[in-house]
Amino acid sequence: MNSTVLQTESTKTKTLVIYALFIALTLVSTMFINIRLPIMGNGGLIHMGNVPLFIAALVYGRKAGAIAGAVGMGFFDILSGWGAWAPFTFIIVGTMGFLAGLISEKVPGKRVVVNTLAVAVALIIKIVGYYFAEVILYGNWVLPFGSIPGNLMQVIIAGIIVVPIAGRLKRALRI
To answer: How many CB atoms lie within 10 A of CB 123?
Structure first.
C-alpha cells in the first residue's frame, strides 16, 4: 500500500472519530447538563449541548458542526421521549451547525468577530426554527413564544464560552 492510500485512510478514520466524539459530547451535554424553565408551553430548556456543537462547527467546520448538532441533539430527543421533536431538531440544529461552520470557514476577518457572527446566525435559526416547529406541533401561534427565552439563553451562554476559545483551539490543533 502506498503512503497516499494510508494517509487517506488515516484522515478518514480521524474525521470519523471527530464526528463520533462531537455527536457524543453534544448528546451528553444536552441530556445531562440542562435546566428546564418553568415557562408556558414547552417551557424552554437551557442545556449545554450547543457548546460542543459550536466547537465542532467553529474548529472543525461546517460538516462537523452539522453532524454533531443534527445527530447529537436528534438522539437526545429520541432518548428523552421527545421523538416528535427529532425531525425538527435534526434539521434546525443541523442547519445551525452547518451555517456556523460555513461562516467561520469562509468569512474573512478577525476570528472573534467572525465566530460571534456565526453564533448570532445560529441563534436566529434556532429561535425561528423552533418557533415554527412548536406552531406545527402545538397548532398555536402564541404558545411557542414561551420557548424563546430558553433558546436565547442557551445559545448566548454557549457563544460566551466557545467564541473566545475556538480560534485558540483551532491554532493549537493546527487545523
So the answer is: 20
Is the entire prediction scored with pTM above 0.85?
yes
Instruction: Give the 3-state secondary structure of residue 137.
Output: helix
Give the model's confidence band at 4: pLDDT under 50 very low, under 70 low, under 90 confident, else very high: low
CA 92, CA 101: separation in Å to the nearest integer? Answer: 14
Boundaries of domain holding 88: 3-173
Helix (H, G, I), strand (E, B), or coil: what is residue 34? strand
Question: Vertex 79, ends 50 and 33: CA angle to 5°?
Answer: 40
Counting the structural domains of the chain, the total is 1
Report how far residue 163's alpha carbon sits from residue 44's, in angstroms, rounded to the nearest whole number: 23
CATH code for the domain in which residue 62 is found: 1.10.1760.20
